[in-house]
Amino acid sequence: MFSKSIDIVVPTYNRPNEIKKFIYEIQKQTYLNYKVYIIDDCGSEDIKSLIPKNDAHFAYERLKENSGQAYARNYASTLGEGDIIIFMDDDAYFIQDNSLDLVLEYFEENEDVGFTMFNIKEPNRDWLSKRKNLNDFQEIGGFIACGCAFRRSTFLNSPGFSKEFHSYAEETDISMQLIKNSEKLVFASRVKVFHNYNPTERTQAWLKRFKYNTVRNDLAIVLTRYPTIYVIPNYIGKIISHLVFTLKFEKHKRLNFACIFKGAFASFYLSRKLKRDPLTMKQYDYWKSRRI
């Protein structure tokens, strides 16, 4: 029998249907010592009315301005006192009713573990464990924040999700910081999450911003976190990779090419705002061999 408390953080932006689904699913959990913090990132949709009234398991906070997922997660982490902090996207939910019990098992039985990432399934894609050939409790070098958990002490001892990224690649950045802190990151294959990720349902304005952030943040991480010897070849290689991917797979090619070049220039400005704190060669090799 577990006694630890769990905080569940869910940033959201104009996704009322997804929030309703998340609330419906989380209420099936058999472990009841949890609290959900739904953080409205200053959207225009009415999210507050969807939160169950007079239910201590739920709290709603609306940000004063659109600040991005990274800021929303950091902010929510200061609101609760749970021993474990779970981060999930608004379009993700647990498959099993005993998922919170399983999450606690990983931490209770392994005191050296500071972080776990869950097994993710998306529409028309297999489980992450099968796609990436990941075993239960395998050490990993990165994660996807649509489903993961931290010991509170581990998260508070880290720099948190960098608010400068707004959205995309904040997971990569904090993963590298955790590795620098000698924290152990493991894959929790038994905790299963369905992530109803469907970019075709997003607006063109959202996709444009996402492409820009993807390139800018990806390259900023190279400039600030990679060992010096790897910066130039990886910076050039990533730009080429983004261009080739757009050419082969994406619609609105001219628009996306413009986003790539704007993002590349912006990465220099962002890297100046971030403190350059690169991994050692040993840490980089560890991260690279285990990243997802």
Automatic annotation (TrEMBL):
<protein>
    <submittedName>
        <fullName>GT2 family glycosyltransferase</fullName>
    </submittedName>
</protein>
<dbReference type="InterPro" id="IPR029044">
    <property type="entry name" value="Nucleotide-diphossugar_trans"/>
</dbReference>
<dbReference type="GO" id="GO:0016740">
    <property type="term" value="F:transferase activity"/>
</dbReference>
<dbReference type="Pfam" id="PF00535">
    <property type="entry name" value="Glycos_transf_2"/>
</dbReference>
<dbReference type="InterPro" id="IPR050834">
    <property type="entry name" value="Glycosyltransf_2"/>
</dbReference>
<dbReference type="InterPro" id="IPR001173">
    <property type="entry name" value="Glyco_trans_2-like"/>
</dbReference>
<feature type="domain" description="Glycosyltransferase 2-like">
    <location>
        <begin position="8"/>
        <end position="153"/>
    </location>
</feature>
<keyword id="KW-0808">Transferase</keyword>
